[in-house]
Amino acid sequence: MKRADIGVGIGLIILSTWVFWYANVYREKEIYIYGPNFFPQILSVLMGLCGIILIIRAMRGEVLPKTDRIDIRGFLRMVIAIGMCIGYLFLMQGIGFAMGTSVFLFVLMTFLGQQGLTIRIMSSMAASVIVWAIFRYFLVIPLPTGMFEFTF
Amino acid sequence: MDFELLYHAFGTVMLNPTNFLFVFVGITAGIIVGALPGLTATMGCALLIPFTFGLPPVQGLLMLLGIFCGGIYGGSISGILIRTPGTPSAAATLLDGYPLSQKGLGGKAIGMSTVASFLGGITGAIIMTFLSPQIAKIGLKFGPPEFFALAIFGLGMIITISGRSLLKGIISGLFGLLITTIGFDPLSGAPRFTFGSQNLLGGVTFIQALIGLFGYAQVFRNIEKILILPAVKSRVENILPTLKEIRESLKTIMKSALMGTFIGSIPGTGCDIAAFVAYGEAKRSSKHPEKFGTGILEGVAAPEAGNNGATGGAMIPMLTLGVPGDAVTAVLLGALTIHGLQPGPMLFRDHLDVIYPIFAGMIMAQFILLLVGLSGARVFARMINVDRKILTPIIFFLCVVGSYAMRFSFFDVGLSLIIGVIAYFMEYYGYPCSPILLALILGPMAEQNLRRSLIISHGDPLIFFKRPISAAFIIIALFVIITSYYRIKKAMEREAQMAAEKEEID
Q1: The pTM is what?
Q2: What is the ipTM of this complex?
Q3: How far apart are CA B411 and CA B344, in angstroms?
Q4: Residue B29 and residue B431: Cα distance in Å, rounded?
Q5: Cβ contacts of B305 within 8 Å, gap of 6 or more
Q6: Which residues face B184 on adjacent strands?
Q7: Residues of B numbered 40-79 whose beta carbons fall under 8 angstroms of chain A's beta carbons: which are they?
Q8: CA distance A58 to chain B (A)
Q9: ∠ Cα B360 B366 B371 (to 5°)
């Protein structure tokens, strides 16, 4: 945690310096002295101070003991799942919400190791169709239709 | 308190089957979400807010209130049956609930939890109904300095109790406040930190942040741990406690309910603290304190009455002053703003048509909770067994839908995903997420009123100390921050000492 705290502290100092400098652009946009730059600059000063305190405390060894560790294989699984989600966003625009969602759910369940083909197909289709129906008929909120524009 | 309005509100809420249906759906969804470990009432509300976009404000809010009450109660089911509290507020319930379950009395523990939750919830709801209009009357006298001091008070209270490090809580809060400065400046209208992107002109919306912080982040954690977490099996029999058992616990229930309501009404405390305080007090004042922790019904009744009492209590500062009592009420506050209603004293002046149905709906929700809880306990217990490999992808997809449906924007989905990834790492490094959410709500209030006050006083910051209410809020906030610092320091020292002792024994 010590290295992480020092890293975050340095990051906070860099961020706060940048915010303070960047917010100066808004100084001229207000007739009062307390213009759009005022609040972000106050926050940046406070954030910078917190960064400095975090570093000092970490250097003095005043860090929280770690309660949990990131499981590397689990983390990779998470990254792949996020990749699948990004793919799903494009797929949804191509083949529509209901079909895209069914495919996404089926693929993700398979990836996470869910057994049973029938249960995967049924649960992914049921979830996507139920939510699609709620949005389509009950809330009347449009969802992407993709090539099946006639469905909405 | 206008009894005529309340009477009409009861008529509107109860005689309209649609309203009844929305509360019912909310309670059921809340219990399911609460009963599933890893899903909190906050997350339940976050995922279901998008489903209220197309509804009239009252119906949407009734559903969310149902999720709130149902979620807090639902956490006890998994706590009792599998020793894993569905929500943090049920952590105290498992102390006696799980031993009861081991004795084969899990069903009875759930039954007692349902009755105590009902009585606690109804006490909180009634107190909220009668107390809120009086507090709002005081709030109507507030000017910019008071509102700024109130925002600082709210932020201070919440930052200090979230997490094991005060500094990290403050950093999270400041980060949230910084996010609120993205988009149009509330006073001059100048765009800030948008980098030329049209998508950022409106700022980071509440729903994007909410789903990122509490939806995606939880999904990512679930995916990471999905192969580590063991599968669970649970079932219950024989739900109803006897009248004698209820009568024996009634005094504890009512005392816990009142304490829970009071604790819940203090911004930053929330249902989990209410549950532990109620449990502690029940044990302290009991004639047989040694039996607590071994599996007694009173040990289930006290925390459940306490945390459900806190639901009504937490609504009081949220509705009357616009300061949320905890993370779930912060979500409800966000939901109100999404529906075009700004919580605070003005709500009691301008939107009585919404306020009174909320009061009536909160009371009605408790009766539906009792009904659904007692009749559906077996079903909810079975739902705990649903495989995470099915559930997690579905929640992931609901997060995508939720972040998309607000503005039909894939940019929003991407932004929520990024916030989710940040929140995932924050959790690991000890930075609490709740202060960000609360800063998103209180940030604009703090900024606008700080600048207005300074303009009024020609730059004199003493304006915040010259007005009694404003000075009182700031002094209390400072007092709480300082005492919290020492409390956390003491707790950490104790933790370190225990770790050292354990090492010595090993």
Answers
A1: 0.79
A2: 0.89
A3: 31
A4: 29
A5: B116, B117, B119, B120, B123, B252, B253, B254, B256, B257, B260, B278
A6: B191
A7: 51, 53-55
A8: 12
A9: 125
